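subagent[fold] <- orchestrator: predict structure for attached chain, return tokens only, no commentary.
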Amino acid sequence: MLHAKTSFSRFLAGVTLAASLAAGGSAAAEPDEPESARGKNGSPTAARDEILRSSEWRETMRDWEKWLAVQKVYDVQQVKKLKQQLAAKVNRMSAEELGDFLDDMEGKLQILMGAEARDARRWLTETLSVASDKYAKKVRAGLPDVANLSAGELQAELDRFEIQRGQTRQSEAAFQRARQDRVKAVQAELRQQHEESERALDRAAQSQNAAAQGNHFVPSTLRNRKSVTDQPIWGFGWGFW
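subagent[fold] -> orchestrator:
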């Protein structure tokens, strides 16, 4: 978590005061150059060096390196590019611009290390862990340019991401509900088909049983009659003795 920092404008004010005291209060800044851009010896370069050597700057850069090490969303090449971009940006800045940049960087790191950004990183990390190479590349291409965005712009990006993620969750929930409904419908249809098949088998079995019983059925009138060959023949017909 970031330590509380005093606004760097106070540091610049201290640099200006020191420069004024070192010059005996007699040396005035050039009309087109702010007093805060001069160091203790009145040099703009010295003012830059004082900012870059300050404890506020070193602490902020440590927090920046810490965040780059903690996050798992930007890949190795992207992290390398972010560092290069930030270094190039800092090298072009005047002392006054460095002061404004440091204040903004502190705010930006507070956003990046905050709970909202951590939750977003966790979600993206989980998404990327199961994504195809093509989709992962697309996701990473859309990540915010944290080296060049201001704190306000970064917060706006995070807010937009949260809105999109909320919409994605709603779409996923609707898709899952529709999927469950389809599964239930298929299961109900399969149960109905199974029940109809069972009933058809029962009917076929009953028909077979009835047919089998019919093949051995003898009317009672016939069951009580004897065959004519079983009757004795007396006094008539051929074969009379």
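orchestrator: received. Logging for downstream: Residues 1-8, 10-37, 233-241 have pLDDT under 50 and may be disordered. Residues 54-203 form one domain.
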